Amino acid sequence: MVFHSPNFLVFLGLLLILFVFVKRWRLAILAVGNIWFYGSSGLGMLLVFAIVTTVVFVAVHGMKRPGFRWLYIVGLAVPVLNLVFFKYTVLLLETWTSLTGWPLAPLEQYASSLVLPVGISFYTFQLLAYLIDVRRGELAPTRSLFRFWVFISLFPQLIAGPIMRGKELMPQVDSIRDRTIPWQDIKYGMYLFFIGLAKKIWIADPLSLEVNEWFAQGAAMSATDAWLAAYGFGFQIYFDFSAYSDMAIGLGWMLGFRLIENFRSPYISADPSEFWRRWHISLSRWIRDYVYIGLGGNRKGAARTHLHLLAAMLISGLWHGAMWTFVLWGGLHGLLLIVHKLTLKLNRWQWIASIRSSFLYRIAAVAVFFHIVTWTWVFFRAQDFGLAIEMTQKMLTVNWLELWQAPLFLLMAGLYGLHVLEYGLRTKEGWFSRVWHWVPFPIRGGVYTAFVFAILYMLRGETYDFIYFQF
Amino acid sequence: MTSYTSNSDHPTDDLEQQAVVMGSHAESDPSIGGPIEESVREQPLPQRAERREEAGEQRSKRRYLGLGLAAMLAILILLETLVFRNVDFYGYSPGFIGQLGELKASFAQEEPEQIKVAIFGDSMSLDALRPDIMEEEAGLPRGTVFNFSLSGGSAFDMYKTYKSYESQLPALEHAIVVVNEHQINNAEAAKDIKFKFYANLNERLQVMNADNYGELLLGWAWKGYEMREVWIMMLDKYRHDRDHPDEPKQLREAIPAYPGGIKPLTWSPKTDKTYEHAVEVADRWFDPYVTDGVRTDALGKLIRELSERGVEVTIVQIPRTPFFEQAVSAKYEEQRQEYVDIVQRFADAHGAAFTVMSNEGLDPETDFRDTNHVSTEGAEKVSREVARRWLGLQTGL
Questions:
Q1: Going by C-beta distance under 8 Å and a sequence separation of 6 or more, which residues neighbour residue A97?
Q2: Residue A419 pLDDT class (50, 70, 90 cuts)
Q3: Are A171 and B235 within 8 A, CB to CB?
Q4: Which residue ranges does chain B devote to CATH 3.40.50.1110?
Q5: Which one of B42, B73, B218 has the shortest CB-CB distance to A261?
Q6: According to the CATH classification, is domain B76-392 in 3.40.50.720?
Q7: Max alpha carbon distance in chain B (Å)?
Q8: How far is CA A436 from CA A159, A183, A194, B75, B391, in A?
Q9: Do the beta carbons of residue B174 and residue B311 sit within 8 Å?
């Protein structure tokens, strides 16, 4: 059930009414609502999700008892194997065949018939985080499977994050029955939800049509088109995924939950380290806490630190999809992080540090790094290595003057402007809100109405899935 | 719950000063996922939020009444009443819903108390049964026959059209209900834009399933949403007319009215009169064929309610080309028999006559504009035939 479908809006309306007015049964309402929400994707998927959740719940409680520590391994293995089975079987079989030359045709046929359960990558990471946090002693496990289900399947963040942790969300689940949800929070949630909807409908979806056409040209595309395709996809994926996150966070506000922010205008980053603190924040901190630190973090020397960083980013790439292009994309970002870390050592020379802290340097660094990130998106989006490499070669030989004169370059510049504008709007939300409320309410009402109809106009009866649903 | 700083009317305002990155790890390397300075929208953990609840409650109540949203609601209600639930609005653009406005405008030109014969049907009867010819043939005064047929009209649309005008037809004596197989095919009933326009909650519940409940429920409450395809098309036409003043206008300047009902169509492309096209139409009508549902129920209700009112009901199937009949028999004979049985059952139950008119005497070349719609010449013949058989002799008007 996508957030911008009529089924979801009716579901949300009914759930909100019950949720706000029947406080006593809030947990039950959420539990059933989550089942309805996820079950609408398929009862088989729901069953798989429920089984994996139950196994992890049992493991969480059992592993503390003497003689049952092996349950920790079971709790880790079941969700991971579930993810590997549904998401990576085809990739593993294809890789096996290409490496050994021994085809496993019947298995490949079976694997290609598997349907990827919706949100499997997200709930797997959330379950693992819960298990590991309990194991590390950072979280006291809930004794109620019912509450655990509400936590893990909380519908706003179930399909595409933000990936929440037990210590953040579980206390909110526990206290939800007694919480008063003020009208302001519902209003703010609606604001975020509609901002997300507008980003999706007005920007990401129309852009996807252009981007698909560019990439469909394959090797025939020109150097200018290669850059435009890469820019376009970079903006498409940002506006699409951040739209989903805005909507999820907005839904959280409406229901009295605080979900963490997932994006903070990532394309204004001046280096890869900053980028990963602004892009898909909930995933990058998961990778940091459970992979990077799990491997040893920066405590085992510089070489190992870099290795851990690379490994973490390779896993992050693989998480995004069952294709080696995703792994390469992760690897590229890993290398960028390592190079950036190494260049930080130059800061011991005062004059370099002072240049780096200047405004002009930041502007230049943002421009350069934005183009590097844009280039990496080619590996994320291209159908295969071959195309990604060809696009890279073309991008390297582009005539920049020609690119800047391309009519669609203006569109890309406009989208970047919008991105910066969003940053300004988001960082000064309170100020904008105060100014907005000086406008007489009938005009505000008129603007809201126009906004709603503009969304309907752009929607035109079509709904496209969010890109991150496939992950 | 969150409270707000004294000058703020935004829930995250005071978090800007107190932002914390939840879950940040003491040992973490800031390369990925670490804290950043301008973490403006980090939300508080509930404990902190709860502490603020008491302090902010009074102020919150006073400050945020949601007047802007209330104004939006008022505007939406006004738009619903004046625009989106008003058939006149749609009449400016031709189409399945626009024709409802045309029908209303055409009806407004008549003197309703003179209408004694009403025709209910689809585009086939719209084209084939011309009120002026029928009146002439039956020797009836002008204005006594009115054709309520709609393009794409299902049995549900026929019934709803009748209900819309029922109270305005005080002199109605005879109803000609023109039927064919697709009118009681319920397979795609819920997707029909006319169904959406007409259906009440009860009727929507009958066609609701796991895929369409949102569309049907939201559409019931909010016609502006449900009719979005129609008004978006109208808006596009408006923009086209504005941007291309030298081209023929796509949006009408007035709702057209035509004597005796909506204006019939008289032209089709040549390719529409081939066996291949007949097969295509037959597939559209029958694949899949589900006779159980709101459309079939509506046909039964239409015949019953007309009969109970004392109106004489004649159920007719208009002639189609031989190759259309051939296309239907070749693949869908069983379904056609099912349809005939259902209509016959309704006719028998209410003492109505049901006749499948033969295409003998009609020339497929000249009397049809496509496989199943008659041409102007064909309409002349069919109208006179229907008037002779059922109006001239039986109404005695």
A1: A103, A104, A108
A2: very high
A3: no
A4: 76-392
A5: B42
A6: no
A7: 99
A8: 33, 18, 16, 19, 68
A9: yes
